[in-house]
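Propose amino acids for all 191 sites.
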């Protein structure tokens, strides 16, 4: 069951479900989805979650957002840690096991890849990808270099719990099973 500080506010059209905690004076705007059905979501104080953002916790990678953070519209934060005073612009994606240090800026449509650490005060330019520990910044046109840095971070193992090369059929079977279990509801006593 979500826990919301009395000074926080959630728009009527936002969806907040599962193990979600929202701190003082934080705001969740229209159409945002905060789902702690598969793992915890913890939002600090004075956080603004803008329209249509998706924030998802995972059992092995809780989503933790510090204080004084802006989470822009159409963002995707999945099992990541965001320290205090971070600016997460429109369309940013942050993947499981990633970490953005205090005072970072992730600009429009940038990506913080799985199992990557962004040092404090780092700026990720518009559309760029941050990969590694510590993260190295790549422009989208540097795909081959990006892949060499990204491959050892084990996206399929971290996100889906499978080795690289597992078929999409198997990955999706597992994903549908996990989400089915998370959202299964016992029938009402009257049924």
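Proposal:
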């Amino acid at each position: 069951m979500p826990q919301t500080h009395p000074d926080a506010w959630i728009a009527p059209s936002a969806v907040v479900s599962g193990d979600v905690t929202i701190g003082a004076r934080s705001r969740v705007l229209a159409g945002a989805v905060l789902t702690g059905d598969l793992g915890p979501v913890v939002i600090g104080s004075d956080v603004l979650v803008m329209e249509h953002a998706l924030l998802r916790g995972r059992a092995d990678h809780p989503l933790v957002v510090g204080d004084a953070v802006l989470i822009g519209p159409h963002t995707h934060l999945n099992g990541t840690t965001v320290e205090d005073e971070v600016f997460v612009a429109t369309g940013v994606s942050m993947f499981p096991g990633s970490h953005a240090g205090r005072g970072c800026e992730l600009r429009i449509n940038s990506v913080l890849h799985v199992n990557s650490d962004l040092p404090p005060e780092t700026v990720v330019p518009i559309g760029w990808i941050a990969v590694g520990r510590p993260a190295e910044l790549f422009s989208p046109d540097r795909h081959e270099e990006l892949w060499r840095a990204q491959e050892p971070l084990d996206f399929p193992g971290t996100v889906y719990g499978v080795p690289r090369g597992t078929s999409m059929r198997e990955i999706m079977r597992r994903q549908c099973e996990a989400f089915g279990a998370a959202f299964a509801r016992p029938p009402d006593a009257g049924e």
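The first helix runs from residue 143 to 150. The helical segments are 143-150, 155-160, 168-183.
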